[in-house]
Amino acid sequence: MSIPYTPENWPIAAALLQFPGRAPDGTSVQDQSAEEWAATLTEVAEAGFTEVDLTDGWLRPGDLAAPRLEELAGVLRSTGLTAPAISAIRRSVIDPVDGDDNLAYSHRTIDAAAALGVPLVSVGLHRPLTPAQQAVLWFWTVPGPKDPEGDRATWDKAVVRLRELAEHGARVGVQLSLEMYEDTYLGTADSAVALLTDIAHDNIGLNPDLGNLLRMQRPIESWESMVAKTLPHANYWHVKNYYRAEDPASGQVLTTPAPMESGFMNYRKAVRFAIDNGFDGAFCVEHYGGDGLSVSAANREYLRRILPRDRA
């Protein structure tokens, strides 16, 4: 088996979940100086990362003018970071209120990725958190918006719009990846693969962020089954883990974030399956709560320990 990287140089990016889109003084990150952007990304580099996912909860490259994109490119160079992906979060192109705006934003994000030399944009169908979700410790413990089940017109709209984004990406040299997320058309392994199949474009794959499904406080498909169905279609991979406690007598399920190596899903087994089935994309390590950047850094080192070497 030929493997494109060694464990030491496989691209493993830090997510920017720990860095909000507004500074403590209320200033938007969009309006910060290049020096202020550099301060944040230096923190990422000092945690041992050489790659960063430009998660748009921190900064929206798709909403930057060309001169500011050049500044961002300079900041990446100065901090020694490369960006294997931009993740556009909670920008569903079938959102019943903001779908048209989100589609336009996704196109701008693809163009921004091309301008920055970022090879991939990850998009999804999840929507903004509701006020009830924002009011609790862990947002996934409160039900959020759901894509309408059995609604062929909405499904077809998702297919058409995501194919449109894939075609745009192909023209400018940027791949698309679909992030799996609960209660959307990307919310189960079967539905995600079916949506990808209907889109039917070579420039789009799956981002099987199975952590988004492991944390659901209800019965779920086994992680082994989800891995087997989705990883052969993956071109990017958000990775995180959760503890799950299930009480069969009451049916109660409780979940909370966990380091990758100690959570419910066996990533050693999942990563080996993925690579045996052709996965050669970048990883993005994520973690909610506490010092999420440091836990993400520990997750990076765990990945480097379990990644296989070329056996050709």
**Named CATH architecture:** Alpha-Beta Barrel
Instruction: Quote the beta fraction.
Output: 5-15%
Secondary-structure element pattern, one letter each: EHEHEHEHHEHEHHEEEHEH
- Sheet of most strands: 8 strands, parallel
Radius of gyration: 19 Å
Q: Let me know the CATH homologous superfamily.
A: Divalent-metal-dependent TIM barrel enzymes
Architecture blueprint of SSEs:
Elements: E1 12-14, H1 34-46, E2 51-53, H2 66-79, E3 82-87, H3 99-116, E4 120-124, H4 131-134, H5 152-172, E5 175-179, H6 189-199, E6 204-207, H7 211-214, H8 223-230, E7 237-239, E8 241-247, E9 252-258, H9 267-276, E10 283-285, H10 292-306
Parallel strand pairs: 1-2, 1-10, 2-3, 3-4, 4-5, 5-6, 7-10
Antiparallel strand pairs: 8-9
Helix pairs in contact: 1-2, 3-5, 5-6, 6-8
Structure, explained:
This protein is an alpha/beta fold and 312 residues long. The chain has a single domain, classed as Alpha-Beta Barrel (TIM Barrel). Helices cover 38% and strands 15% of the residues. The protein has ten helices and ten strands. It has helices spanning 34-46, 66-79, 99-116, 131-134, 152-172, 189-199, 211-214, 223-230, 267-276, 292-306, and strands spanning 12-14, 51-53, 82-87, 120-124, 175-179, 204-207, 237-239, 241-247, 252-258, 283-285. The strands form two sheets. It has an eight-stranded parallel sheet with strand order 6-5-4-3-2-1-10-7. The protein has a two-stranded antiparallel sheet with strand order 8-9. It is globular, with a radius of gyration of 19 Å.
